[in-house]
């Protein structure tokens, strides 16, 4: 059994690959200063694209996504970026909920699981 970890920190790995499945940690915006949920979503999806490419995958292979919003009122703003980003015909299973995030600056957090 092989487990590969990428971008390993003290608390978490950004990417874990096991048995052909890629698990990404919850991603938040790198620079959440503009407290704009749409811009934070754009930043997060770019990170997801990079991590999946590094792991030998792409958004077309996402199996599942979990999205946390600090306020459910951000649902439409997040989806204005999410919807065109999702590959046509490859929408993953998805949950989107309101939750208190790790810091008040964060408005959106996204975690995905993908096939390699």
Structural key phrases:
33% strand, globular, alpha+beta, 116 residues
Structural overview:
The chain is an alpha+beta fold and 116 residues long. 25% of the residues lie in helices and 33% in strands. The protein has helices at 37-54, 75-85, and strands at 3-8, 13-18, 21-24, 62-69, 93-98, 108-115. The chain has a six-stranded mixed sheet, covered by helices on one side. A hairpin with a 4-residue loop joins strand 1 (3-8) and strand 2. Helix 1 runs parallel beside helix 2. The radius of gyration is 14 Å and the shape is globular.
What's the short version?
The chain contains 2 helices and 6 strands. It has 116 residues and is α+β, with helices and mostly antiparallel strands.
Label the structural class.
alpha+beta
Categorize the overall geometry: globular
The succession of helices and strands, N to C, reads EEEHEHEE
The main sheet comes to:
6 strands, mixed
Number of strands: 6
Can you count the helices? 2
Q: What topology, given as strand order, has the largest sheet? A: 1-2-3-6-4-5
State the share of residues found in helices, binned by percent. 25-40%
Terminal Cα separation, in Å?
16 Å
The low-confidence runs, each spanning 5 or more residues with pLDDT under 50, are none
Strand content: 25-35%
Question: Cα-atom Rg, whole angstroms?
Answer: 14 Å
Average pLDDT = 96
SSE blueprint and pairings:
Elements: E1 3-8, E2 13-18, E3 21-24, H1 37-54, E4 62-69, H2 75-85, E5 93-98, E6 108-115
Parallel strand pairs: 4-5
Antiparallel strand pairs: 1-2, 2-3, 3-6, 4-6
